[in-house]
Amino acid sequence: MIRKEYNKMKIHHIAITVNNLKQSIDFYTSLFGFKIIKTFERKDLNGKAAFIELNDCKLELWEFEDMKENKDSLTDLKTRGIRHIAFEVDNLSKTIIQLKAKGIHCTTAKLGASGHNYSFLADPNGVAIELYEK
User: Fold this and answer.
1) Do 49 and 103 have their domain in common?
2) Who has greater pLDDT, 93 or 76?
3) Domain extent at residue 62
4) Band of the pLDDT at 72, cuts 50, 70, 90?
5) Euclidean distance between CA atoms 62 and 85, whole angstroms
6) Is residue 68's pLDDT more than 80?
7) pLDDT tens, residue by residue, 14-67
8) What global pTM score does this model have?
9) Measuring CA to CA, which of 37, 40, 88, 101 is 20 to 30 A from 114?
């Protein structure tokens, strides 16, 4: 049973380590409409970061000088960690056409077990993004 004080808990942000902070900010702001909230550096970690936001969704993007590679499959739900970020869209077919016009590869839309259509693409860092039609 969920304790009473956690009933109003919600996700504050999702942190993603990226290859290139500027490229990632440009990707999320130009394609999805995210706005930059704050940029900052952590000299103790040799890293720089940005908080970006779209409605109630916040992403914390990190770039480090000494990156470590994760070779796990991004779509394997049995692998620990972030498997994908899902964005809800009104019209999946129209969204896919718009993204493909901008040179973004999207998978063919499929009907999911939830009864809704979905498609996948990747951000500049290879992070899987699901487009989920409401």
Assistant:
1) no
2) 93
3) 1-67
4) low
5) 16
6) no
7) 888 888 999 999 999 999 999 999 998 988 888 899 999 999 899 988 888 876
8) 0.72
9) 101
pLDDT of residue 16: 86
Do both 10 and 63 map to the same domain?
Answer: yes
79 shares its domain with 113 = yes
Q: Final residue of a domain: which of 67, 93, 123?
A: 67
Using left for φ > 0, alpha for ψ between -120 and 50, and beta otherwise, residue 115 falls in left
Domain co-membership, 4 together with 49: yes
Encoded tokens for 96 = 């896919």
- Same domain for 60 and 12? yes
Number of H helices, E strands in the chain: 2, 8
Domain count, the chain: 2
Kindly state the helix (H) or strand (E) to which residue 100 belongs, with its residue range.
Answer: helix 92-101
Contact predicate 52/59, CB 8 Å:
yes
Average pLDDT of the chain, as a whole number: 83
Question: Domain with 80 in it: what CATH number?
Answer: 3.10.180.10
CB 3 within 8 A of CB 51: no
The position carrying tokens 């869209």 is: 89
Say whether 61 sits in a helix, a strand or coil: strand
